[in-house]
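User: Here's a protein and a ligand (zinc ion). What would the complex look like?
Assistant: Let me lay out the input and then the predicted complex.
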Amino acid sequence: MKFLCIGRNYVEHAKELGNEVPEEPVIFMKPQSALLQSNAPFYYPAFTNELHYECEVVLRICKNGQYIQESDAGNYYDAISVGIDFTARDIQAELKKKGLPWEKAKAWDNSAVLGKWQPIGEGLKKDDIRFSMKKNGAFVQQGHTADMIHPFDKIVSYVSQFFSLNIGDVIFTGTPKGVGACVVGDELEGFLGDESMFKLLVQ
Ligand code: ZN
């Protein structure tokens, strides 16, 4: 499996990092080795001094496909959750300055955290999903899918023009504003609506 990740999908987040709001989705990938296996400890990586959390809605791909039409995209994912796209922000800043690829900042081992999956039911309103994350018990990010620049079906369609989607792939749909640093000892808890989806201690 692979992770397909969307950058700058919320206007307020693009602004907080001083980025332009792109017309087309910004895409990057993480390999399977980026997955933090459930209940595995998360260790602060030695190569960064500025570890940032990015809490995002994630989609699970349930059907192989490429060149997917937006009108058909809803058939290609069957479950939703929240996750963390961990980012070594200091390394990313260096890479961006030099115009280099982002993998060292984004795609390292255990940089992708996934909450438990919730099957997508009939009643799901894709543009009306609240999600949030707490750090040490206080909200640090609160998002709503209505604020996404590119909604789920557009993302699935767009990425599939470049990359085949395979069963089990996961799409990170972008982070809302409120990204920030974490340190050893911090506890991060992600929510879909009011339901806790993951809890993680930085060690
Ligand atoms: Zn992200």
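Summary: The radius of gyration is 16 Å.
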